[in-house]
TrEMBL record:
Keywords (A to Z) from UniProt: Hydrolase
Protein name as catalogued: 6-phosphogluconolactonase
Protein source organism: Aeromicrobium alkaliterrae
A Pfam short name: Glucosamine_iso
Family the UniProt entry places it in: Belongs to the glucosamine/galactosamine-6-phosphate isomerase family. 6-phosphogluconolactonase subfamily.
Described purpose of this protein according to its UniProt entry: Hydrolysis of 6-phosphogluconolactone to 6-phosphogluconate.
Biological or metabolic pathway of the protein: Carbohydrate degradation; pentose phosphate pathway; D-ribulose 5-phosphate from D-glucose 6-phosphate (oxidative stage): step 2/3
Record's catalysed reaction(s): 6-phospho-D-glucono-1,5-lactone + H2O = 6-phospho-D-gluconate + H(+)
Superkingdom of origin organism: Bacteria
InterPro entries: 6-phosphogluconolactonase_DevB (IPR005900), 6PGL (IPR039104), Glc/Gal-6P_isomerase (IPR006148), NagB/RpiA_transferase-like (IPR037171)
Entries under SUPFAM superfamilies matching the protein: NagB/RpiA/CoA transferase-like (SSF100950)
Length: 229
């Protein structure tokens, strides 16, 4: 576990992401990445494109969770990523794997199951934001989705963070990753971060405890988010 406390978590994430993608591509891989939603991640996405060593036509992108609203809606994590960097950096549509949108003619459960069938066997990198309640992706404290051991993607109703209907990858999918990088910024995340990193604790209370990279787990925090450690 690596914990980095930095002045600008978004800038650090953006540059670490590009360095890592360039490294993987230098070794001949086409990286498979699960993106997160959230304000800090989106701040980081807007900074991507600085490193000429990354070939953005050779990166496959999935999402760890998505808000189940119509395609193109400003609340969608995929739309936010399109606006922040996908279109600007010319990531080919064939390498972008968005979760289904509301209006797709499937139920939420069918949409989640359909998404699961297109996931890679493992990710090179999973990016995760953390909620003030300790949620990651759309896995919320006390929710039954935390106990899922078979399905790789699940439907979520009644999310405490709006909008209420979502699709989320589960722990089995998120944990099938070499690298898991968390990013958190601000005092509002401090308590959740300290619970996530405490030696003991419950995944049901703090879902962020439930995800670990096979090779490395990295926390990128600003001083406020790290203030309760
Ligand atoms: O779709 C979402 O809402 C997210 O994927 C969610 O898990 C997010 O990453 C955290 O809530 C942190 O979000 P902030 O960075 O905005 O606090």
């Amino acid at each position: 576990m690596i914990v980095e406390v930095v002045d600008d978590a978004a800038a650090t994430l953006a540059s670490a992401l590009e360095t890592h993608l360039a490294h993987l591509q230098g070794g001949g891989r086409s990286p498979r990445v699960a993106l997160t939603g959230g304000t800090i991640a989106n701040d980081a996405y807007r900074l991507l494109g600085a490193d000429p060593g990354v070939d953005w036509s050779r990166v496959d992108l999935w999402w760890g969770d998505e808000r189940f609203v119509p395609e193109g809606h400003a609340d969608r994590n995929d739309q936010q990523a399109r606006d922040a960097f996908l279109d600007r950096l010319g990531v080919p549509a064939s390498r972008v794997h968005p979760m289904p949108a509301h209006g797709c003619s499937q139920s939420l459960a069918e949409a989640a199951d359909g998404y699961a069938t297109g996931l890679p066997a493992e990710f090179d990198l999973v990016l995760l934001g953390v909620g003030p309640d300790g949620h990651v992706a759309s896995l919320f404290p006390g929710f039954a989705q935390l106990d899922e051991t078979q399905r790789l993607a699940v439907e979520v109703f009644g999310s405490p963070k709006p909008p209420p209907e979502r699709i989320s990858l589960t722990f089995p999918a998120l944990n099938a990753a070499d690298q898991v990088w968390f990013v958190a910024s601000g005092e509002g995340k401090a308590e959740a971060v300290s619970r996530a990193l405490a030696p003991e604790g419950s995944v049901h209370q703090t879902p962020a405890r439930g995800v670990r990279g096979r090779v490395e787990t990295r926390w990128i925090l600003d001083p406020a988010a790290a203030s309760h450690l």
